[in-house]
Amino acid sequence: MAYDGLWRPIPVKLVTVTEIYAHRGLHVVERENTIGAFLAAKAAGVYGVELDVRRTADGELVVHHDPTIDGLVIANTLRRELPAYVPTLVEVLDVSAGLHVNVEIKNIQHSSEPTYDPTGGFARQVVQTLDDVNWGDSVIISCFDLATCAFVRSFDTDIPIAVLVWDLDLRSVMTQAHVLELNAVNPYFSTVTSEIMEIARDLVLDVNPWTVNDPLDIKAMAELGVRGIITDDPVGAMAVVG
After folding, report:
1. Strand 72-73 versus strand 68-69 pairing type
2. What is the CATH number of domain 17-241?
3. Looking at the predicted structure, is the pLDDT value of residue 133 above 60?
């Protein structure tokens, strides 16, 4: 309880702040994962942005969601051969100063991905780049691949890491994330329940669901107490959660 000026007890409502991340930038007004999209998200006042990082054949870290562009496999293509609108990770970080950035490493053994790095070299380069530009305190690294998450943790004991979850048993992944000393799970939003939130609290894991676009779903996630919401409609989400 707290007291007003007349010393009458009044109730205090505890408020859980839910952080809003613009999924691939504000791509309703700009091409996703471009400098314009991230600048637009920043101008809209979001807490953070989510982006996808890949590595080119000549070792450049670039920001793009799909593994190919115009038929070119990014991992097998030189940086200079990619379209000019594809930014580097460092370029995006430069324009995202003041925001929190969810850096998703696109590295997973899946039929949709033509290449996979099992060595940890890709993950190490991402961690090193973030360290070089002093972004370690303002990012969370995420990946669908637990092995990649484990590599990141082995390279940096402090940087926040989240495992992305889509078609696996969320409870099992959460246990593995706890064992690997990760900080969060980023599951598809429809799998997040009050039970999942209880497990997350027990395992000391944040929950950042994706991609939450409907206002009713956004409200439901916020009421469950998720740490962050990754959304295609960050402006609408901010209005919902205040």
Report:
1. antiparallel
2. 3.20.20.190
3. yes
d(CA 140, CA 136): 8
Among candidate residues 141, 199, 150, the one with its CA nearest the CA of residue 174: 199
The confidence score (pLDDT) of residue 199 equals: 98
Under DSSP, is residue 79 helix (H, G, I), strand (E, B) or coil?
A: helix
Q: How many CB atoms lie within 10 A of CB 186?
A: 27
DSSP type of residue 75: G
Query: What's the N-to-C CA distance of the chain in angstroms?
Result: 23
Other C-beta atoms closer than 10 Å to the C-beta of 240 total 20
3-state class (DSSP) for residue 199: helix
pTM given for the model: 0.93
Residue ranges covered by each domain of the chain: 17-241
Identify the pLDDT of residue 242: 84
Determine contact, residues 177/203, Cβ cutoff 8 Å. yes
d(CA 135, CA 48): 13
| pLDDT band, residue 16 (cuts 50/70/90) | low
* CA atoms within 13 A of residue 117's CA, in its CB half-sphere: 22
